[in-house]
Design goal:
It is built from 27 helices and 31 strands. The chain is of the alpha+beta class. A hairpin with a 4-residue loop joins β2 and β3. The structure holds tryptophan and zinc ion (ZN). Keywords: Aminopeptidase, Hydrolase, Metal-binding, Metalloprotease, Protease, Zinc.
C-alpha cells in the first residue's frame, strides 16, 4: 500500500546500474507459517558507469523482514545501512564484494499473487515485473543479469516436487522429514525470470529433439486430478518448438523445459527461464471440459511463453519502458504460429476484431499511451492491449514494409547481435534497418505516439487518361500529454477490382510495368496521392487488405459496393471486413431509428448477403460463421461518438431476430447437417472441426430466437448429448438467454452439479450467466457471488463473474440508476486490499465514462471519486483512477 505520494518514473531518467550481480545464490526454507530466504550476491561495480568515489548500493526490497545482512562476511549493524519501505542502502568499500542477507517472508498470506505465494497447497512465484523484490533484497531491474543457483527445502510429504530454473544439480533429504533440491541456471537472467515451485504435483513427460540433435525433456506439472488434461498443451509445446526452429531458426537451449499449472494467477502465463508458470486455464484442455476457443488459447499461450525463450529471455529488455520489445514481438510471433497451425484468415479476423474493439478503446481513453510509454507510476498497469496487441501490429507493419525475407534477416541479426543482452526497441529497429539497408526513423513514431490514426481516402477517375488517383489524408487525435502528432508511415495494402470482380494489374505512374494485383503503398505524409495508370474502367478499391495498419479507415463505401466486395474480394480478410462494414451501416441506421422512436426496419440487403453465404456450401465454414456474426455491442460502442447502450442493444437484437426469422430454413438446414456430423465424429481439436462447430453454434444461437419447440428440443439434445464443451456450453448459453425459464434453470443446475469439482468449467458457468442481457443481471451476479464455488481471491473467478458482467453485459452494467457502477466500485475497493493488479484491471470499464451520456458520466465519475477517497489505495488503482479523472 502507498504511504507516500506515488513516484512517477520517466524513460528519460534511465541510467545504467551502478553495480552488477554476477552470481546469485538463493536458499529457500519453506514452512507453513513463514519462509526464510538467504541470498548471496556476488557483486561488482559496473565498469560502464563513471569511475571515482563508490556510490551507495541501493537494493530493492518490499515487505521483507530483515534477519541479517553482511558485506564480505562482516555482519552489518543498524548504523551500517538504511532501511526504507522499498529500499536497503549501504556503502560498499571496494569494487567487488559479496552481500549475504537473510529475510523472512509470508507466502501463506500473500493474496496479491506477486512474489512468492501459495496457490492452494503449492508454493509458486510470479516475479515479473517487480515481484522479485518481495522475495529478497536485490537489484530488481531487467538490465541486471545474473547466474542463479537456487536451493529449495521443504517438508518431503507435502512438497515432493521442488523446482526452479535450469537444471537440477543436487538433492538430499534430512532426518526431520524435509528434503531439498539445488537448481542451477547456466544462462544469465534478470530477476523477473526467476521461478520456484514446490508442491505435490504429477507430471506428463515427453521429449523433443532439436534441429542440432539435442534431446530436451519436456514436463508439464499439474495437480494429480488434472493429469488427464495436459496432452493438448504438450502437443502445442512440441509444435511451437519445431515452428520456432523453422520460422525463426531458434533452437531451445536447456536440457529440460517445464510448465507448471497453478489455479491462482494474475495473468495468462509467465515465461520464467526453463520453468514457465501458467494459469491452469492456459494449460488444461480436453474435449469434455474445454471449448474450442479454450483449446486455441492454450495452443497460443504455450507458444507465446515458449517463444519468449528467445524474444524476452535470451534477448531481454533494458528497462520496463521497452516492454513491447518482448511482448509486441512475441504476440506477433504467436499470431504467426497460430495462423500457420489453423486458418490464417480466421486468426487475422479474430485479432483485428479484438484490437479494434478493445485496443482502440484504450487508445481513445484516459490511459492512452504509446507502445513505448514515456512514464508510469506502476508498471503492472502497462501490461496493456497497446503494448501487446498494438505492439504486435507495429512489428507486423515492419514485416509488411520489409517483406518476409527482409524481416527474417532482421530478426536473425537482432538475435545474433544482442544474445545475452538487455536492449531497447531502438536496438530492435536498428537490426531491422541494418539487415535491409532500410530507414525506419519516421516509422518509429508508431512507438512514441499514442492514439489511433484516421486514414481518409478519396479517389479521382480520369476516363480520358485512364488513370485512377487515390488520395490519402492521415490524422491522429490528441492523447494525454500529446496534443499534436507527426505523420506516421502507414503501409496500405490494396487491390483494385474490375466490374467482374477480378483484380486489376497495378501500375503506378512512372513505373515501367504493373507490379502484381495486390501491393503495399507506404503513406508517409499528412496528405499523399498515388496515381494508377492503364485503368480502362473505374475500379473498386479494396483498401487496407489484411488490415495492413492499425488505423481507422474512412472511405465512403456504398452498401452495394460492400456487397460486391463480400462476394468478390480476393483478400479473405477484406471479404469479411466488407460484411462487417455493411452490418455496421445497417445497425447504425437501426440505432438512429430507435433513438428517434421510429419503427425499426432492417435493410434487406444484409439478409440477402447472409442468405447467399449460407446457401453456398463450398465456402469455408469458419468464414461463413465469422461473416454471420454481427459486430459486437462493445465494438458498436467504440465507434459511437456517444454510446447509447440501450439503442445499441435493441438495434442489434432486432437485427438478429429478423435474420433468424428470414433465414430460418437455411440456418436450420446447416445446423442439422453439422450437428449430425458432430454426433458421428469423435472430437478433434483442429481447424476443420473448429469451423464446423462454429457454424453449427452460430446457427443455433440464431435459431433459438425463433422460440420454436423443435429448436428448443434440438438445443436440449445438444446440451445433453454433446461429447464436448464447445457444443454443450453454446447450448447452455443460448438457453440462458432464452425465455424458456424452466429448461434454463434445469440445465444450469445439471451443469453445475456435473462440473462442481472442476473450477475452470465452473468459471464458464459463471460467465455465461454474468453475460446474459436479460433483466435482473446485476442481482443475478450478486447472488452468484454467494455461490460456494465463487471467491474474490481467485483471479479467474473474478474475471469470469465480475469481469464478464462489466465488459460483456453492457445493458445491465450501464443500468440507468448506476447500480452496476456502484457494484463494480465496491468490488474494486475490496480487491484493492487483496490483489491490486486485479483491482486495477477490473476498473477499466469505469474509466471509459467520457463515452456515455451526461447522467451516466456523472454516475461513473462519482464511483471513481468514491474509489479515490476510499482510503489507502495501491499504486495500481491510484494511477488508473487518478488518470481517468484528470
Ligand atoms: N510476461 C508475461 C507474458 O506476457 C506477462 C505476465 C505474466 C505478467 N504474469 C504477470 C505481467 C504478472 C505482470 C504481472 O507472457
Ligand atoms: Zn508475453
Amino acid at each position: 500500500m502507498r504511504t507516500e505520494q506515488p513516484k512517477v518514473i520517466h524513460l528519460k531518467d534511465y541510467q545504467a546500474p551502478e553495480y552488477l550481480i554476477d552470481e546469485t545464490h538463493l536458499t529457500f526454507e519453506l514452512y507453513e507459517d513463514r519462509t526464510l530466504v538467504h541470498a548471496q550476491l556476488v557483486m561488482r561495480r559496473n565498469p560502464e558507469r563513471p569511475a571515482g568515489k563508490l556510490p551507495p548500493l541501493e537494493l530493492h526490497g518490499q515487505q521483507l523482514e530483515l534477519l541479517s545482512i553482511a558485506l564480505n562476511d562482516r555482519t552489518l549493524s543498524l548504523g551500517d545501512y538504511q532501511l526504507s519501505e522499498d529500499c536497503l542502502t549501504l556503502q560498499p568499500d571496494s569494487d567487488s564484494f559479496v552481500i549475504d542477507s537473510s529475510v523472512v517472508i509470508h507466502p501463506e498470506s500473500n493474496t496479491a499473487l506477486e512474489g512468492l505465494y501459495k496457490s492452494g497447497s503449492m508454493f509458486c512465484t510470479q516475479c515479473e515485473a517487480e515481484g522479485f523484490r518481495k522475495i529478497t533484497y536485490y537489484l530488481d531491474r531487467p538490465d541486471v543479469m545474473s547466474k542463479f543457483t537456487t536451493t529449495v527445502s521443504a517438508e518431503q510429504k507435502a512438497y515432493p516436487v521442488l523446482l526452479s530454473n535450469g537444471n537440477p544439480i543436487a538433492s538430499g533429504s534430512e532426518d526431520n522429514g524435509r528434503h531439498w533440491t539445488t537448481w542451477e541456471d547456466p544462462f544469465k537472467k534478470p530477476a523477473y525470470l526467476f521461478a520456484l515451485v514446490a508442491g505435490d504435483l504429477w507430471c506428463v513427460e515427453d521429449s523433443f529433439t532439436t534441429m542440432s540433435g539435442r534431446e530436451v525433456a519436456l514436463r508439464i506439472y499439474v495437480e494429480p486430478e488434472n493429469i488427464d488434461k495436459c496432452q493438448h498443451a504438450m502437443d502445442s509445446l512440441k509444435k511451437s518448438m519445431k515452428w520456432d526452429e523453422e520460422a525463426y531458426g531458434r533452437e531451445y537451449d536447456l536440457d529440460i523445459f517445464m510448465i507448471v499449472a497453478v489455479n491462482d494467477f494474475n495473468m495468462g502465463a509467465m515465461e520464467n527461464k526453463g520453468l514457465n508458470i501458467f494459469n491452469s486455464s492456459a494449460v488444461l484442455a480436453r474435449a469434455e471440459t474445454a471449448t474450442d476457443a479454450a483449446h486455441q488459447r492454450v495452443e497460443a499461450i504455450v507458444a507465446h511463453e515458449y517463444f519468449h525463450n528467445w524474444s524476452g529471455n535470451r534477448v531481454t529488455c533494458r528497462d520496463w519502458f521497452q516492454l513491447s520489445l518482448k511482448e509486441g514481438f512475441t504476440v506477433f510471433r504467436d499470431a504467426q504460429f497460430s495462423a500457420d497451425m489453423n486458418s490464417p484468415t480466421v486468426k487475422r479476423i479474430e485479432d483485428v476484431a479484438y484490437l479494434r474493439t478493445h485496443q482502440f478503446a484504450e487508445d481513445a481513453g484516459p490511459m492512452a499511451h504509446s507502445v513505448r510509454p514515456e512514464s508510469f507510476i506502476e508498471i503492472s498497469n502497462f501490461y496493456t492491449l497497446t503494448v501487446y496487441e498494438k505492439g504486435a501490429e507495429v512489428v507486423r507493419m515492419i514485416q509488411t514494409l520489409l517483406g518476409k525475407e527482409g524481416f527474417r534477416k532482421g530478426s536473425d541479426l537482432y538475435f545474433e547481435r544482442h544474445d545475452g543482452q538487455a536492449v531497447t526497441v531502438d536496438d530492435f529497429v536498428k537490426a531491422m534497418e541494418d539487415a535491409n539497408g532500410a530507414d525506419l526513423s519516421q516509422f518509429k513514431r508508431w512507438y512514441s505516439q499514442a492514439g489511433t490514426p484516421r486514414l481518409s481516402v478519396s479517389e479521382q477517375y480520369d476516363e480520358a487518361a485512364q488513370t485512377y488517383r487515390l488520395t490519402f489524408r492521415q490524422s491522429c487525435p490528441p492523447t494525454p500529454g500529446q496534443p499534436t502528432k507527426e505523420p506516421f508511415v502507414i503501409p496500405v495494402e490494396l487491390g483494385l477490382l474490375a466490374a467482374d470482380g477480378s483484380d486489376l494489374p497495378l501500375r503506378l505512374q512512372g513505373e515501367a510495368q504493373a507490379q502484381g494485383t495486390s501491393r503495399v503503398l507506404a503513406v508517409t505524409e499528412a496528405e499523399q496521392s498515388f496515381t494508377f495508370v492503364d485503368m480502362p474502367e473505374r475500379p473498386q478499391p479494396s483498401l487496407l487488405r489484411g488490415f495492413s495498419a492499425p488505423v481507422k479507415l474512412d472511405y465512403p463505401y456504398s452498401r452495394d459496393q460492400l456487397m460486391f466486395f463480400m462476394q468478390h474480394d480476393s483478400d479473405g480478410f477484406n471479404r469479411w471486413e466488407a460484411g462487417q462494414q455493411l452490418s455496421v451501416q445497417v445497425l447504425q441506421e437501426l440505432i438512429g431509428q430507435h433513438q428517434r422512436g421510429e419503427a425499426l426496419a432492417l435493410d434487406e440487403r444484409l439478409i440477402e448477403a447472409m442468405r447467399s453465404l449460407l446457401q453456398n456450401e463450398t465456402l469455408d465454414a469458419a468464414m461463413v460463421a465469422e461473416m454471420l456474426s454481427l459486430p459486437g455491442e462493445a465494438y458498436l460502442t467504440e465507434i459511437s461518438e456517444v454510446a447509447d447502450v440501450d439503442a445499441i442493444h435493441a438495434a442489434r437484437e432486432f437485427a438478429r431476430k429478423r435474420i433468424a426469422d428470414a433465414l430460418f430454413e437455411p440456418l436450420w438446414h446447416r445446423y442439422q447437417a453439422n450437428r449430425e456430423t458432430s454426433r458421428n465424429t469423435a472430437y478433434v481439436a483442429s481447424a476443420e472441426h473448429f469451423a464446423r462447430r462454429a457454424l453449427q453454434n452460430i446457427a443455433l444461437s440464431y435459431l433459438m430466437l425463433s422460440e420454436k419447440t423443435e429448436v428448443l428440443e434440438a438445443c436440449l439434445e445438444q446440451f445433453e448429448h454433446a461429447d464436448n464443451m464447445t457444443e454443450r456450453l453454446t447450448a447452455l448459453a443460448v438457453l440462458v438467454n432464452s425465455p424458456f425459464e424452466a429448461e434454463r434453470d434445469k440445465a444450469l443446475q445439471a451443469f453445475a452439479e456435473h462440473f462442481k469439482d472442476n473450477p475452470l468449467v465452473m468459471d464458464q458457468w459463471f460467465s455465461v450467466q454474468a453475460g446474459s442481457p436479460l433483466p435482473g443481471g446485476l442481482e443475478r451476479v450478486q447472488q452468484l457471488m454467494q455461490h460456494p464455488a465463487f471467491t474474490l481471491k481467485n483471479p479467474n473467478k473474478v474475471r469470469a463473474l465480475i469481469g464478464a458482467f462489466a465488459n460483456q453485459n453492457l445493458v445491465n452494467f450501464h443500468r440507468a440508476d448506476g447500480a452496476g457502477y456502484r457494484f463494480l466500485a465496491d468490488q474494486v475497493i475490496t480487491l484493492n486490499a487483496l490483489n491490486p493488479q486485479i483491482a486495477s484491471r477490473l476498473l477499466a470499464p469505469l474509466t471509459r465514462w467520457r463515452k456515455y451520456d451526461g447522467a451516466r458520466q456523472a454516475l461513473m465519475k462519482g464511483e471513481l471519486e468514491r474509489i479515490l477517497a476510499s482510503g489507502e489505495l495501491s499504486s495500481d488503482v491510484y494511477e488508473v483512477v487518478s488518470k481517468s479523472l484528470a
